Structure formats: structure tokens, C-alpha cells
Fold each of these.
Amino acid sequence: MKRLIIALISGIIILSAQNSKAQLSVNINIGTQPAWGPSGYDHVDYYYLPDIETYYYVPKRQFIYLESGNWVYRSALPARYRTYNLYNGYKVVINSPRPYQYFNSHKVKYSKFKGYNGKQAVIKNNNSNSKGNPHSNGNKNHSQGKGKH
């Protein structure tokens, strides 16, 4: 009887360890920045895309945009933006919760980046880290720190 109990407990421990490993590997990639995101950031919660007045939530890989007066979360942009190029459009990094609550402010503050013709380095084309990058977190003209709106 003792051997059966020990074997059962050992089996539970082994299964628990395997489940923990599976969960770890699944969670590692959550929150990975998209290849079209601006390079030089160690952490990003949201991007604001001034050209299309849309947010992108990095942890869940979802676009947030207005639809019939409501903010919706979708895995893809709506058909009205099918010609928009995510690699060319300007992205503003925002690391504060629910930035769409401050949309009216963001719309005015970042309107100067609509149709921005300058080059913003994107992750896909840049193998460097954030050190020395003009688009790093330290540049307040291009990012919004925690708690700022």
C-alpha cells in the first residue's frame, strides 16, 4: 500500500513539473513586439498609430480602434485601413494602462506625426539594442512614460 501511495505521489509530482514547463514555454513569447514596431525599446505596452488613430496592445497582439463609437479589440485592422503600411507609419510608444481613455489628448498631441515622412527605424530592420538609438525610451519626444497621459 505504501508503494502504491508513493508511486501515485511521484506521478503527480512528475505531471505537475511537466505542466509547469509547458506553461513557461507558452508564456515566454507573450508581449513580443511586432517586427513593424519602432526599434530601441526594452518594453512596450501600447503603440499609438496617429495616421489611423488606432492603438496596438502588444501583450495580446490586438489593435484597438473606434467602431460605431466604441473601442474594440481586434487581431487585425478593419478593411478601411487595408492599404495602411504598418512599417511606414509612425508609432508612438505608450506605457500606461488603457491609453484610449486619453484619445482626445493623444489625437492632438501626436497629430504632428500624421503622414510623418521621416524614417522611424523598425525592429525588423534593426539588430541593435536601445543604447544609442534615437528612438529609445529616454527620448520623450517619441515615447510616453508610465503614468503620463
Amino acid sequence: MRISHKYRFIFISKPRCASTTIRNILDPFSDITSSATPPFHHHATALELKLYFDRTGWNWKDYFVFTTVRNPWDMIVSYYIRFKPDVNGLYNFEKERDGCIYMPDNPASFKEWVLSAKTYHRVLFSNETFQKNVWVDGFSKLTLANTVNDHNGNSLANKVLKVESLDNTLSGTLQELGILITPKIVRMNTTGRIGYRAYFDDETRRIIEKEFISDIKFGHYTF
């Protein structure tokens, strides 16, 4: 997450979607950088930030809001390798959850994780009510819809950039903001691995296809 009052942008940082790379590029132009805690969490959603803007009296519509999206099958493999879920579904950024201690020496297989994964929402709008700090079955936290939509399902973003074509699109987006640089895109926090298709069987492929329908439709992604 990055916010600039001078250049009037909000960058929404979608996990495992070149977010660290773009945050670093935007740092010199940002008035607010992110941290591990709300309201300016590294991966705060557009809805979270919009609620904060409303409370603060900042006009959301005065800002250019953008984020990134990535082939979800590829992204999920990257998430799995980066955060190393254990057999209880805990990630390496957790010490414990629900009485379970993170066990790095007892990892979940990729399929075990996909079938039983939970993701954490700091703010979740469900059944016409807001919930805070909840773990939800599946991968809803990581979807494009959750990243950019408001509580009515309408996008709060002005632009979504595909990670796969970032070399060709980020420079133009920065120029739209009045940032006249040619960004040097250095991929950060990458995971060296074999191709993502090798991790999936038909069951896990379909699970990701169902969960990430917003990402797939936007990016015209195929397995």
C-alpha cells in the first residue's frame, strides 16, 4: 500500500502480485507508506482504506487508485512457497492460531493446503454486516474482488495492471500520475520453482478456478 497526496494516487498492494516491487518504485513519491498494522497495512484492501478515508474526511474520488493482478494458479503456488503452511494451515508469519503452534518441520502438501486453507480478513463485509479480524475458509482474501470492491461489489479502483505485462504498462500509469520516470522493474520476493502447473491436479485446479473467477475474468487467464 502506498498513498501520495501530492500525486493523488493510492496503490493497493495485492499479495504475490509484484506488490513489493511496485511499493519500492513508489516510495520516493509517497506520503504514506505501509506497515504490518492497520490502517495502513501492507495489504490493506480498497474497502479498508475507503472506510479510513471516510472517517478522516479525505475524498476518495480525488485519488487515482490502482492495483495489480496475476494468473491465480501461478499466484497461489507462489503464496504456498512463500508462506509455507504447516499441517494445521498456519503460515510462517504466524506463531500460533487457535491453540496451534506453527510447525515448520511439518508442512502441508500443496493439495492438503488448497483443500483446507483459510485466509485472514481484517475487514469483511458478509451477510450485510461488517466483520473484523476473521479467518475464512478458502482464498477469498487473495482475490481481485476482495482487493478492490466495496461492500456493494463495485470496484473502487481506477486501473488494474496485469503482472505479466507490467514491463509495458507501469511506466504509462506513472506518467498518468505525473511521475515522469522510467521505472526499473526488479522482481523482489520471488520464489524459485518449477512451473505452476506441476503443482495441480484436476481437483485443485478447479478450486482455484472457482475462487478466483474475478481475477480470471479480468485477466482472461487460463490454466
Amino acid sequence: MSASDSAPQVPAAERPEGFRRVADALAARGHPHAPLYLDASARTAQEAADALGVVVGQIAKSIVFRRQSDDAAVLVVTSGDRRVDEAKVAARVGPLRRADPAFVKAATSFTIGGVAPIGHVTAPVMLIDRELFRFDVIWAAAGHPNGVFKLTPQQLAELTGAPVEDVTP
């Protein structure tokens, strides 16, 4: 049984703040799929894939970098079975540093494992990896390590307005 076939979800209003913010952002944009709050953590792409009964590549994982020039958060959304090529990202947005958990939380308003592509208090610089377009359906983080939402790669691009780039080796 997949997560989408499980028992009814507890209303988003009773969930953590980040999850509620993503649920509200999806609803405001008319997205057809409300986020799911899983019983198990979906902190890693593999955990999310296992919980949802999908292949790990269908998980839209969020990788956050810190741009050196202005300390802006740079969010790269890539396929769960790919690694981000930091040099390719830097070539598009400028020199980068790794982002520690405190920076990720402060800059994106989400904790690692729950960084959503939407619902940010301050919008990050964002890139979407073209590798996600190998799949008809993907799942992205919904503002909490237990939260996910279903969408297509095209919907991800439309919801975020982020450019689709080649950012993997």
C-alpha cells in the first residue's frame, strides 16, 4: 500500500508550521495534490522512496548551498538518485560554500530533510535539475521531514518559476 492509499490524513492545520505553510502555498496555487504527512521520516531520498513505494529517482531532493557573494541560499532540486555537481551550480549562480544545518534553517525556514521547493519565508535562488524530467510523477518535501507532496516535474517548474538546468555530473 502506498502512502497515498493509506488512512485519511490529519488536517494540515494540526501539523508543524513548515508543513502548514507548504500546504497553504499549494492550495493558493491550485495544486491538485495536498501534501501527505507520513508516519515515518522521509528525511532522506531513500526513506521517502521506501515510504511511498516509488523508486528513489522520483524523490525531488533539496540540496542547499550558500552563495559566497551575498550569503543567499541556493536551493537545487534534483532527482534522489543523482548527486549535484557544485561546479555546474556555481557556474550558473556564482561561487558557493556548503550550507550547515543552522544556515539551512535560517535561510529557508525549513530543517534539513524537509526543505520544500515552495513556501519559503524568503525565496532562495533556485535551480531544478533536468534529471527529474525522466519521471512522470515525482515527490517533493513539504516543509517537514515527514511531509511530502506529489507533482510532475513540469508542475515543479511552474510552481517555483525556477530554471531547469543540467546540474549533475
Amino acid sequence: MPHLPRQVTRATALAFAALAVPAFAFAAQAAPAPARSFTPWDKAPGMPPPVTPELLEIGGRVFRGACLGCHGEKGNGEGREGKLLQIPPRDFTQGAFISRSTPSGSLPLDTDLFRSIRHGFKPAIGMPAFNFLSDREVWAVIAHLKTFSERWKTEQVPPPVEAPPAPPRTAAAVKAGAEVYKATGCAFCHGEKGLADGSSAPSLTYDSGKPVVPANFTKLADFKCGNRPEDIFRTITAGMDGTPMPTFAEALTIEQRWQIVYFIQSLGEGAAQVAINR
């Protein structure tokens, strides 16, 4: 078994502990427990259940067992375990989320939060994929984390930014993407070869002032918001709130965004091929 960072294994153990609590609560009820479903991160999870006192109670239990150690009791990212992580946990009190399908500056959809919990983020962040939480438990903890920010009470969640059908990936499209990448200034953060070694990289910070490392495009598996073509397109379009990654919805045409997607993919695929040939 590969060695996992201590914070990841501990977060996983805490999550398992949290699941045992709701089980006892349901056992005391006269009505049978609802069927447990486990929708993968890349599939539509269906409609969330109504937010009831019972659902919020379950969400609080799951949060205390699986999330509190990193995100803190108040959801402000100041948990004891979180202080050990290279990349600071999200501060839910700000209502700003990195992985969204909605426009820059807006709240995410519930399905965006569901995907983040199911998918997890790259190992250095310490956020595992919570595949062992049932759909109901994921919806419950989403309802709970919304209690940390007033934004959920005062703002409407806008419709998602839809990725239009992808054009064919061709050598010409990849080459054009390399030119757009250079002209847009992506290399200042991500580096000319996508190695996260651009001239601005050492000075990048989250809005909180804590340091942030730009994505290394040669490691597609580490992408926080998914590495499918539609995931990369969505990230380029919506940006990553709370980080230096802006939205390019207005700066680049749809065609140019797809070209950058294909160029980024080519960087990761090229690095993987080099590793195989060594």
C-alpha cells in the first residue's frame, strides 16, 4: 500500500468515525432507514433531500467527524489538522469556492459541492475523496457547511456555465493553444512548460494571504477541479475564487479556451510518455 500523508489517513479515520453516529440514530427510529446510495463524482447525484432539522443534525455529525479537523469548528479553515497541510483548507465563512460551475464571484451549485466532496483534491491538499459517505450524508454535510456564511442567505446561486460541445482535437488546435497560452500570460504562473515554475509563482497567495502553488500541468491527476476536457474548460471559464486564477470568460473566445484545454492536456500526456520511456 502506498504511503499516504498523515493528515489524509487521519481525515479518513475521522470520517469513518462520523458514519457510525448516524447509524445509531437511525436504529432508534420506527421507520426504516432510507436506502444508501453512493453516486460517483462524475455522475449526476440527483435532487438533494429537503433541508430539515434531522438532515442538519446528520450534517453536523459528519462535519465534526470528517471535516472539523481541517476546516475548524467554525468552518474558517483553522482546524488543528489543517495547520499541518501545505495548502490551507477552505474557509467556508467567506463563501468563496475554488471548484464551481457557476460564474466567477458567485456561489456554487449544490452539485458542485457534491462533486468536490466525492472527488477530493490532490494529495498535497490532504482532502481525500469521501467515497464512503452515502449520498444522503454528503447532502447533509453540504447543508451544514452552508450555515457558516451569510452569503447563502442573501445571494442567489446563478445558472452554471455550460461547456459547449468540444471541437475536434487536432495538432493545429494544440499548436494554437500554445500560442494563446503564451499570449494570455499563463506562463507567468504556470511556467512555459506548465511546471508551475513561472516567474510569479513564488509570490502567489490566496485571498487570505496564505501561499498558493499554481497547477502543474504535467500532472493532470492532481487537478483540483477534474482533468476531463470539460472540467478544464469550466475552470478556465469560471476561474477559481479565492485564488489568483481569474476567469477567462470575457478575455478568450470559446474556441481559444478549447485550444488552451488541448494544449494543457498535451503537456500532461507528454510528461506521462516521457516517464514511461525512462
